Amino acid sequence: SYRKGGYHAVRVGDTFSGGRYIAQRKLGWGQFSTVWLAYDSLTSKYVALKIQKSAPEFAESAIHEIEVVSVLTKNDPDNKKCVIRLLNHFKHTGPNGQHFCMVFEFLGDSILQLIKYNRYKGLPLNRVRAICRCILTTLDYLHTQLGIIHTDLKPENILLVSTINPSNDPNRSKKGPILSKPDGSMNNGGGFVVNAIEKRLKQRARQAVARISARRASLGGFRPVTKGDRCFDGIDFRCKVVDFGNACWANRPNAEEIQTRQYRAPEVILQSGYTYSADMWSFACTAFELATGEMMFAPKPGQSYSEDEDHLALMMEILGKIPRKIAIGGLRSKDYFDRYGDLKRIRRLKHVPLARLLIDKFKFSVNDARDFADFLIPILDFAPEKRPTAEQCLQHPWLNKSSESSVQKLDSEMSKLQIK
Ligand code: ADP
Ligand code: MG
């Protein structure tokens, strides 16, 4: 698609906006754009440069994204809401046409990457909690303060906060996800510096660092700790929600079909109308995936049934039957349900409640499974209006638990070895 109306081909060293931004390397791409790491010669900082395809429909969607993200940035002057910040935007003319370009703050890997680095085993629950708190902070901000629905929440669209200097980081994408570097900006509140250590403790400390590095790598998939690094536990963990190309104002929804398949809410499949609570459904699916390493619902079409019908069946196997009134209440209900509210083509469902699934398949302890299911089940209510809001979720005891993680235990052990 590097042709008229499509992507703009970029080479390392290419400049944009009258020479201000210098392309360094490609960070990623989507259906609409390519995203490049660029050096901002005016501020001497690294930024993410999103270069949209040039055809009119892509230009239109870029204008929409710029409008939404400008609102997000403007209303969060203190940068506390865990949303991507727009720094600048301009147009760039190339051989394939005119491309809208957006300049964002540079962030790290996505949490999908984090799950992959952890070999799809799921992250430690304290880490899951920290990520959930970030996402809910964003959703509360979008929903109650701005009236915006994200509509495409998923692990791929949640990026780790990074303050690393990318050109100096030879480890990038080799050893583990990029999180942060000692820079002060995200180190308040927790962590410690592995630094000069008194002679008689040197040996012990070195062993401890090696042990902690190994444990840490196995627990969270982080690159090993070295001298000068800051160590993090769940407290300092931060991420940001990105990709507002599909976001919409709740009072003017822009599409019937929203969300990426696996994170799609039942009311979207049935076309019974959606609002903010559709984001909450995607949030719960994302939290499950973080904790288990597997997608909560991964529907496939069968010989006699569609992907949609399989999706509804999978939901009912974990969450119980969809109440008849809800099942038959959507514009598309007749495609899947008979008038009794039973699926037309998938008759036999195997009910495995969420807590049981967490214990049997994902080897959660009974307590962890019960607590996590208590948190998720209300968010996965088939009745959208019964789901808790992001603000209510933030009050839930599961999120505010302060059980000491293994990483924290190691950290406090380590800090005892520190000499001031
Ligand atoms: P699209 O709208 O085309 O899907 P996205 O905004 O999702 O584009 O960006 C595509 C990819 O580029 C993302 O999945 C991510 O890997 C990378 N990316 C986007 N924004 C940033 C950023 N601010 N910092 C680092 N990487 C980014
Ligand atoms: Mg995207």
Automatic annotation (TrEMBL):
Molecular function GO terms recorded: ATP binding; protein serine/threonine kinase activity
Annotated catalysed reactions: L-seryl-[protein] + ATP = O-phospho-L-seryl-[protein] + ADP + H(+); L-threonyl-[protein] + ATP = O-phospho-L-threonyl-[protein] + ADP + H(+)
Keywords: ATP-binding, Kinase, Nucleotide-binding, Serine/threonine-protein kinase, Transferase
Binding, ATP: K50
Domain Protein kinase positions: 21-399
Pfam families: Pkinase
Gene Ontology biological-process entries: regulation of mRNA processing; spliceosomal complex assembly
EC number(s) given by UniProt: 2.7.11.1
Protein's UniProt keywords contain Nucleotide-binding: yes
InterPro entries, per database record: Kinase-like_dom_sf, Prot_kinase_dom, Protein_kinase_ATP_BS, Ser/Thr_kinase_AS, SRPK
Keyword field contains Nucleotide-binding: yes
Stated family: Belongs to the protein kinase superfamily.
Annotated PANTHER family: OS09G0552300 PROTEIN, PROTEIN KINASE DOMAIN-CONTAINING PROTEIN-RELATED
Designated name of the protein: non-specific serine/threonine protein kinase
